[in-house]
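S1.2 Input.
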Amino acid sequence: MRLEVFCEDRLGLTRELLDLLVLRGIDLRGIDIDPIGRIYLNFAELEFATFSSLMAEIRRIAGVTDVRTVPWMPSEREHLALSALLVAMPEPVLSLDTKGRVELANPASCLLFGQSQAKLRNHPVAQLIADFNVQRWLESSPQETHAEHVVVNGQNYLLEVTPVYLEGEHNERVLTGAVAMLRSTVRMGRQLQTMTSQDTSAFSQILAVGPKMRHVVEQARKLAMLSAPLLIVGDTGTGKDLLAHACHLASPRAGKPYLALNCGSIPEDAVESELFGDALQGKKGFFEQANGGSVLLDEIGEMSPRMQTKLLRFLNDGTFRRVGEDHEVHVDVRVICATQKNLVELVQKGLFREDLYYRLNVLTLYLPPLRDCPQDIMPLTELFVARFADEQGVPRPKLSADLSTVLTRYSWPGNVRQLKNAVYRALTQLEGFELRPQD
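S1.3 Output.
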């Protein structure tokens, strides 16, 4: 059971809270204190009567403004987010202490070294990566980010070691450990080749003139190269599906299948068979069909709680069961999710799993609405006019001088899709050779 206590900054308030728990014989498992006036308590489940009485007593403490139950402590949420990030990373990552021993290893590291998390913990990194003189690096002053070529299990890797510092009592930097990442030179070569050969065509369909959209595209180019789940957030009509496909085409998975499913357009049982397949019908699901490639789950906020649970399990280990079958199937698929809803609000309302949200919200792209990108409106208009005129086999009309003012002042609630449809409708009804606001 976890409580969030809203309180004023008063000396002794925390002590009174703890004394109350001691008086009632409640064993405290953990406590987090937020500087903005919140205290989080973690203790065992209580009977309803005891719990109700405790809540009332906490509210009577001077300086306490409110108290409520919460699903997670802040430290637990941070741990979940960090764990999700480490699990999602395809490269082996090791957290080291100041003596060069392993404190934490992600699944890719366990796979590379053929050992479990428990066996890797406290293992000297010098015994795992013989080419790296960790002692010499630790004794250097100051410790700086270091990169060198190493060989592990006969494979070539680029080892990157980054020091981790914390602030000491006298504001000095204190070394607390390091993070070591092993990047496969073969994988890096493939990524570079893919980036140079695929990236231009991948994002050529996305017009980005203004700074906001240029920033989104720059981010997307970088995130496209990774294998972790990608979350694309944006209002309806902003082009989330187009951006998702571009990320697939710019990735090392470009030559593999890309499939998309709208979670809000089909029933729950149909979603399950579409994604995971149906053994009774001999049908392969999207994840199996797209093995090695990418799957877009559009409108992920519409997914049912049961399907959220199945998706979370798939994201954790890449395995699933077809409908009507006990045999587990393992595939390698990058999951891209898109939504126009506020997932944080859905989590707070209990409509979206919090652990799934943190699993998805590792790499995120936010698409701005068209009204926030006025520099893009006229270039998009010109693009659509040229495209539709050529498709209809008619001369490209001239754009009137006052059209720009009208279009850039409009709020465009339907965003790029609405602009595209408006241009198409205007061209089909155009009489003459000039496109004007009234058209």
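S1.4 Remarks. The longest helix spans residues 374-392.
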